[in-house]
Design a protein that fits this description.
about 290 residues, alpha/beta, five-stranded parallel sheet, four-stranded antiparallel sheet, 9 helices, 15 strands, about 35% helix
Length: about 290
């Protein structure tokens, strides 16, 4: 018989801004006490005032605060929080963070560390789904991003135009468009630097840019027993600087047949890595075909 899961009574939100406010509001509606954390730059922010308790993490830079696992653990212990919600960005896809939280007997609201390791790293995610026969956009990893000659040679193999993308990122951060070999070295340097600041890891990879694609996402949900379902697609093609502005459902270009195929692939990808909780599988759609994105 499976032991009953204890209810969450106090949750620490390891993030800031609107996502922290949304988690705080939902938790309060459920009767769960909330704990906020903040950097020096955010000491008067709304999420700090909205939670029952708030703990300072450190200086204004994310590396001094929201990306510091030990400081967040200290805040958990000081507050007595029995769960952590990561929000998005920062440590939300960091497997080491999940393992550190769980080692203290604290629950993590999100997927297990093993699933993060497989899918949180976009390079690993591509390899995982390729092994299952899922179509992916042509791309390549950079064995040595500090070697200009190797960077240019790898870029030429991928083909132009291409995107330099952060392996551990999202939301358009750590991403640069490249149209020719004379641009790629500087683009890799800048994307890597931005990825370090935003995600704590500067690993980047190269991916062929598909002209005028549709960005289509499939929402999935998995329980703790391996059962997964999908909830159809969201059309997310209207973007500015790689940030989605409008999401629409259903997509005007996705046929019932494509919807069924994309949904099945999304659930298959989640099941392959033992995913739990809510997640999104992103695809690029072009000329009636789709490609796994992240």
């Amino acid at each position: 018989m499976t032991a009953a899961v204890k209810p969450i009574r106090k949750i620490l939100i390891a993030n800031r801004g609107e996502i922290a406010l949304r988690v705080i509001r939902a938790a309060h509606e459920m009767g769960i006490r909330t704990v906020a954390v903040y950097s020096d730059a955010d000491r008067t922010a709304l999420h700090v005032r909205g939670a029952y308790e708030a703990y300072r993490l450190g200086g204004p830079e994310p590396a001094e605060s929201y990306l510091d696992i030990e400081k967040i653990l200290d805040a958990c212990k000081a507050s007595g929080a029995d769960a952590v919600h990561p929000g998005y960005g920062f440590l939300a896809e960091n497997a080491a963070f999940v393992e550190a939280i769980q080692a203290e007997g604290i629950r993590f609201v999100g997927p297990p560390a093993a699933a993060m390791q497989a899918m949180g790293d976009k390079v690993s995610a591509r390899a995982t789904v390729m092994g299952g026969g899922v179509p992916v956009v042509p791309g390549a990893t950079l064995e040595d991003a500090s070697n200009p000659a190797l960077v240019v040679a790898t870029a030429k193999e991928v083909g132009f135009p291409l995107l330099v993308k952060a392996a551990f990122g999202g939301g358009g951060k750590g991403m640069r468009m490249v149209y020719g070999p004379d641009e790629v070295v500087e683009a890799v340097k800048r994307a890597s630097s931005e990825a370090v600041t935003a995600f704590g890891d500067g690993t980047v990879y190269l991916e062929r840019f598909i002209e005028k694609p549709r960005h289509v996402e499939i929402q999935v949900l998995f329980d703790h027993h391996g059962t997964g379902v999908h909830y159809g697609e969201r059309e997310c093609s209207i973007q500015r600087r790689h940030q989605k502005l409008i999401e629409e459902s259903p997509s005007v270009v996705v046929t019932p047949e494509i919807r069924a195929r994309m949904g099945a692939v999304a659930v298959q990808a989640g099941a392959a890595v033992g995913y739990q909780n809510a997640g999104t599988v992103e695809f690029l759609w072009s000329k009636g075909e789709f490609y796994f994105l992240e």
